[in-house]
Design a protein that fits this description.
Elements lengths: L39 H9 L3 H6 L10 H8 L6 H15 L3 H11 L5 H15 L3 H5 L2 H8 L3 H13 L3 H8 L3 H10 L6 H5 L2 H7 L5 H13 L4 H9 L8 H10 L7 H17 L8 H14 L4 H12 L4 E6 L11 E5 L3 E7 L9 E3 L4 H11 L16 E4 L8 E7 L5 E6 L10 E7 L2 H6 L36 H10 L7 E2 L2 E2 L9 H4 L4 H9 L12 E5 L4 E9 L3 E5 L8 E4 L3 E6 L15 H22 L1
Parallel strand pairs: 1-3, 2-8
Antiparallel strand pairs: 3-6, 4-5, 4-7, 7-8, 9-10, 11-12, 11-15, 12-13, 13-14
């Protein structure tokens, strides 16, 4: 099997819900026969042989302890839907007559964190543990003490839980055991559930900046840069390490996390000079390292607030030794880039470093001004073979530059010379259906230093004037349904359905796409439960519809395919990227190395964060009316 995943043929289905298991037409629908009366080792072996879908078919109940191994298997599966996992934890707590917090501590302690998926699961469970009531966490002191004696990640989780429980004295005791314990405590801070808790750790973090141990100092720099305010003091503290031989990169990465508004021009110039000198002294062979690149990105940020003539002088020196690098990441579950726009100087070389932190494949394609949508649609037509080995990239003069399609946790680079003509050049992910939300703008300017003195945010390339409103949660709507959505405008709701791009994937009243399920009767399916429908909108990964399962198949030749499995038997596996596809992908079972599925929905979880609470309720009223009309027509 090849070490590098080749996305020469990547197919994806985007839906309203994600997966609980493979939708296999030919699979045996009878529940697996598991002998729960055998020894724990034999039971675990039987359950371990089942894929996630078959595991969920195993009978289970909260009225008999023999089902405990089934629930334990469910909570330990990385790709299990959040709602299913939550129900399993509740069942375990009931069967063992103890708290969910106790079950979480035990599960985290049992996990074997040996790959990226297991690390993600550990993080999910850690957040769930730390969010438990403080009085419940306080009852688990012994279990948390034991967890703190585990590896570095487990120790950080335990200390964060103890801090959330108000046991700071115990954390002080645990973290005094040595440098590794102190590093675990510093890394625990970002796990804390509230800004207030994090701020209370500030004096301790600042004190550890003076540690004699440089590993502890590095962890303190990282922790300080992630603390909520006061960021001006943070800037000053980090800047002191900008010319430190071994802590320079840590300081630069910390500076990049701070808003540019807190940068001080006078001290920024001094640090920029130091970093430019460092770049000039760095061996050419080391100038492509991630550490060097991050340091140069920090210089670029510092130069953006330095007086223009001085910035030009320093930037000229920098150009002699390094190409300007812009790092762009993907945001997990939100189908967007973490950089909405950046500026480059016309005719100058630039490198874009794309890091995929999401659970699905993405690319980045820079287009000519005004060509985002046409390139994205042409990319869909180009298909998984694409152009010159780049999936979903069309052969078009409107494509300025394009990356490969990269797998989760992978990176790639695009090196290009910026166009000579100033303007706003959109960049977009051309994976099917992603262009609705996943885009940004490369602003090409004549004089980068002059632009930095008076930066102008580019226009939204799709014409939207929406901006972030709030990261909505279910609690924000606790009292929103007292009037049962009476008096709301379904016309406004329909407008929002279209504007939010829901119509691209879903039908309502026979209008819309067919990539996701028809939502005309979504209220009927959820028995008119407003909270259940709202959760599907705000937390699309909470419950999962197996009919819209996104599977990733890795072949023995190293090729990767993604899509809905529509058929499977002992000989072949068949999947499609879209119900409208004329030809599905058929893969021989002998050619399959492994099959994995996503733990999250293909619907972005932050889709409604640019809409007001009232607008979200209008959307729900629109869906409710659609279900009522359909029900009336069927009578």
């Amino acid at each position: 099997m090849r070490n590098r995943l080749c996305f020469s043929r990547v197919l994806l289905i985007v839906g309203f819900c994600s997966t609980v298991g493979r939708a296999s037409l030919a699979a045996d629908t009878e529940p697996p026969k598991i002998f729960l009366d055998k020894s724990p080792r034999i039971v675990a072996y039987q359950l371990g042989r089942l894929d996630d879908e078959r595991l969920l078919m195993v009978p289970r109940s909260t009225d008999d302890p023999k089902y405990i191994p089934v629930y334990e298997a469910i909570v330990a599966r990385p790709a299990m839907a959040a709602g299913i996992r939550d129900e399993a934890f509740e069942a375990l707590a009931k069967l063992r007559e103890r708290s969910v917090a106790a079950e979480l501590v035990a599960t985290i302690g049992r996990l074997k964190v040996d790959d990226a998926e297991a690390k993600r699961l550990q993080t999910v469970l850690a957040k769930k543990l730390i969010a438990q009531p403080a009085n419940e966490l306080a009852k688990e002191i012994e279990g948390l003490r034991e967890l703190a004696d585990g590896d570095a990640r487990e120790s950080s989780v335990a200390m964060a839980a103890l801090l959330a429980a108000g046991k700071s004295d115990l954390v002080n005791e645990l973290s005094s055991a040595g440098s590794e314990s102190m590093i675990a405590r510093l890394r625990a801070i970002e796990l804390l559930p509230s800004d207030a808790m994090k701020r209370r750790q500030r004096s301790m973090v600042e004190n550890e900046l003076k540690s004699a141990n440089e590993d502890v100092q590095a962890a303190a720099i990282d922790a300080l840069s992630k603390l909520p305010g006061p960021t001006s003091e943070t800037f000053a503290a980090l800047l002191r390490f900008a010319d430190h031989t071994t802590l320079r990169t840590d300081a630069c990465r910390g500076l990049l996390r701070l808003p540019k508004a807190v940068y001080d021009p006078a001290t920024a110039e001094t640090a920029a000079r130091s970093l430019v000198t460092f770049a000039e002294k760095t061996d050419a062979a080391d100038r492509t390292s991630v550490e060097f690149i991050d340091s140069m990105r920090a210089v670029d940020r510092l130069l953006s607030i330095v007086e223009p003539e001085m910035a030009k002088s320093l930037r000229r020196r920098l150009r002699e030794v390094a190409v300007r690098v812009v790092k762009i990441g993907t945001v997990e579950e939100e189908m967007r880039y973490d950089v909405p726009y950046f500026a480059v100087e016309a005719g100058r070389p630039v490198q874009i470093l794309l890091e995929n932190h999401d659970l699905m494949p993405h690319n980045l394609v820079v287009t000519q001004p005004g060509a985002l949508k046409s390139v994205a649609m042409a990319g869909l037509s180009a298909g998984p073979e694409g152009t010159n080995g780049l999936p979903y990239v069309p052969d078009s003069p409107n494509v300025v530059a394009a990356s490969a399609m990269i797998a989760p946790d992978a990176t790639t680079r695009i090196t290009l010379t910026a166009p000579e003509q100033p303007g706003e050049y959109p960049y977009v992910c051309t994976f099917p259906q992603h262009w609705y939300r996943m885009y940004g703008v490369m602003v090409v300017v004549k004089d980068l230093d002059a632009w930095n003195q008076n930066p102008i945010e580019p226009a939204n390339p799709l014409g939207s004037n929406r901006s972030f409103v709030q990261a909505w949660t279910m609690d924000d709507f606790a009292d929103a349904f007292d009037s049962d959505l009476a008096g709301r405008s379904t016309m406004i709701g329909e407008k929002i359905f279209n504007e939010a791009s829901c119509v691209g994937c879903h039908k309502v009243n026979d209008q819309g796409g067919v990539v996701g399920p028809d939502l005309t009767d979504v209220y009927t399916r959820w028995k008119s439960d407003h909270q259940a429908v709202l959760r599907e909108i705000l937390e699309p990964s909470h419950k999962i519809d197996s009919k819209y399962a996104m599977q990733t198949v890795l072949t023995v030749e190293g090729k990767t395919y993604s899509g809905i499995v529509i058929d499977e038997n002992d000989d072949i596996l068949t999947l499609v990227s879209n119900p409208e596809d004329k030809e599905p992908i058929v893969i021989s079972q002998e050619d399959i190395e492994l099959t994995k599925r996503s733990a999250t929905s293909m619907m972005p979880k932050a889709l409604m964060d640019q809409y007001t609470k009232e607008e979200i309720l209008e959307l729900m009223a629109y869906l409710k009316e659609a279900a009522e009309k359909k029900a009336a027509g069927n009578e």
